[in-house]
Specification:
It comes from Virgibacillus halodenitrificans (Bacillus halodenitrificans). With 154 residues, the protein is mainly α. It has 8 helices and 2 strands. The protein is 72% helix and 3% strand.
């Protein structure tokens, strides 16, 4: 049974990565402003102020100033998008099974993704996305570290 679970996790990781690439880079994201220079695009599509976007969405959700699906999709989506990574990475790469290395790996990965989205104009650089993605990944990591999951896979 243990070997079957490990094979399923490895196969599901491939599907997860494909889904991430589609969500982050391929889908219609509505950011392709061809009339702006890259520098102008970077200025208008970047948020380096922590909790600015999160606060905007929470306020819009509470005061109903925006379609409620937009803040829910953005906040919950960013949170859950990297939760599986907290399980997959320590399972597949034993060297990052410790919290410190996992956190460092996620910082590098998430920073890389945010920069690529910005440079390719397939999204924006938003520190709040980074925060929500990291929280999701850390919760996934905590799930990974539970005795039940460890017993299941060892």
């Amino acid at each position: 049974m243990e070997k079957f679970i490990k094979v399923i996790l490895k196969i599901s990781f491939i599907f997860y990565l494909v889904a991430l690439v589609i969500l982050l880079f391929i889908g219609n994201r509505g950011y392709l402003y061809t009339d702006l220079t890259l520098l102008e695009y970077m200025k208008t599509s970047s948020n380096f102020v922590p909790f600015k976007t999160i606060n905007t969405y929470l306020t819009a959700f509470v005061d109903n100033s925006m379609n409620r699906n937009i803040p829910i999709k953005n906040l919950v989506g960013n949170f859950f998008m990297f939760l599986p990574m907290g399980i997959y990475l320590p399972f597949l790469i034993k060297k990052i099974a410790g919290l410190g290395r996992f956190v460092l790996s996620m910082i590098v990965l998430l920073f890389f993704i945010e920069v690529i989205q910005l440079v390719t104009r397939r999204g924006s650089f938003d520190i709040d996305d980074f925060i929500l993605n990291m929280i999701g990944a850390l919760i996934g990591f905590a799930i990974w570290k539970t005795k039940y999951i460890q017993k299941l896979l060892n």
